[in-house]
Amino acid sequence: MAINYSFLFLFLSPFLHLFLFDRSDKVEAYRFDEITTNLKLQSHVVSLNSLTPAGVCSTPAQGSKNLSRLLQVTHKHGPCSPVKEGKAKIPSLRQILINDQARAKSINSKISNKDQVIDSTVKVPANSGHSLGTGNFIVKIGFGTPKQDFVVIFDTGSDLSWIQCQPCEGSCYDQQDPIFEPSKSSTYSNISCNSPSCDQLKSSTEYEPPCASTTCIYQVTYGDNSYTAGYFATDTLTLFSSDVFPKFEFGCGQNSQGLWGSADGLLGLGRDQVSMVSQTAQKYKKLFSYCLPSKSSSTGFLAFGSEAGASSSAQYTPLLTESSNPSFYFLTMTGISVGGQKLSISPSVFTTSGTIIDSGTVITRLPPAAYSKLRSAFRQAMIKYTPAPPSSLLDTCYNLAGYTSVTVPTIVLHFGGGTDLNVDQSGILVQASSTKYCLAFAGNSAATDVGILGNNQQQTFEVVYNVEGGKLGFGAGACS
Ligand SMILES: *[C@@H]1O[C@H](CO)[C@@H](O)[C@H](O)[C@H]1NC(C)=O
Ligand SMILES: *[C@@H]1O[C@H](CO)[C@@H](O)[C@H](O)[C@H]1NC(C)=O
């Protein structure tokens, strides 16, 4: 039954010749380039120096962006921070990881509480659940008339914005700027107890607002035992000197304690009604973006409205809403590749837990089945380096004494819509001690715990939140 195709070959040979030989040089050269590029793409050579904080702030150019329309984003601690003692009070990785674990836990308790069938025999404390740890990145915003500038943590994992206010009736912590004095702002008003805004507060803070005479009171307790409480109020919010939002609803904190560093308060960028994103929707159309710098010695940006996503070619993935958790930004994660190889993880692993993106969680949390695959592939690729004991939740560590640079595999997170996040090299290893470096990912303890795309893995990308358009984008190389 063998068919002799030689006649075909003879017939086609002039064309084959043309194709195979005349063009072969170019074709082969092109393929060779492509292969070497691909091989290069599968690993990063990371200079260990680049993972150690530098002592001097360098502000890189922001490309074609309009600087007067960007809020400068800095690490809370470090040489670029406007907070003066920022540099002195750098927390240890151990402390950061403890806080981070508290935040991840509180995100999960907030998400799972809402889904639970209420058991009438269990009394839930009034403010249980609404508790996220403190974020890490700060911007400067203006409040009041005349405007006063405040340095605040911005947080996509919570909604209510607040600043410390005089008189500190409970206790106020030491902050960077003079504490806001409502009596000196001509546009300040308390929100009254019987206003719809006061009713709405409950949905955003899970806290039934009580009243002080007729004034609505807010209270937020965060997972790391930080808290803030005070009057729910309105005043003018000013961004970029030019964008003015009268009657912006915020918490005027009379009593706040916790791990706020010396930040003056918090800017809530969740998606619930009281969030800054919702309150400025008319002007900014619920569109914002940020780029988180990879080092505390460099700066990123926070942009709103048309400036967000305008100058980077972001890849988008659908942004999902969960009606039971209207505050969080849910994404569809579909897979992970290490060193260019897609890991075999059943898609149900990701759908069981769901995934949110959060600016305040440091280390990305994965479902246990996904994390164990990532860890095995990473360890395999790092086989030539000496393992070191775990550091808190980071269980894949190396002793890199004597190395100035290491070759680490690329890690790509795959999302719905075919969008890939090729994690920057600054988001693969974190420095745990002078010679110890660990994989900057962790596994959840339960398969049902939500996956969290943390800020370490978002570094250097412009992350574009197009809430009205229902999509979230990653634009590579937007800051360093
Ligand atoms: C940058 O933004 C400012 C403030 O809105 C505006 O006046 C200026 O024209 C913008 N510059 C460019 C180059 O777009
Ligand atoms: C806001 O309410 C508090 C408590 O009722 C009150 O002490 C304060 O004077 C009020 N501030 C303004 C500006 O009305």
From TrEMBL:
UniProt keywords (A-Z) are: Aspartyl protease, Disulfide bond, Hydrolase, Protease, Signal
Organism equals Protea cynaroides
Q: Is the keyword Ribosomal protein assigned to this protein?
A: no
Residue numbers annotated as active site: D155, D358
Q: Outline the extent of the Peptidase A1 domain.
A: 137-475
What protein family does this chain belong to? Belongs to the peptidase A1 family.
Q: Do you know which PROSITE patterns this protein is assigned to?
A: ASP_PROTEASE (PS00141), PEPTIDASE_A1 (PS51767)
Q: What is this protein called?
A: Peptidase A1 domain-containing protein
Signal peptide bounds: 1-29
Superkingdom classification of source: Eukaryota
GO biological process terms, alphabetically, are:
proteolysis
User: Does this entry carry the keyword Signal?
Assistant: yes
Supply one GO molecular-function term: aspartic-type endopeptidase activity
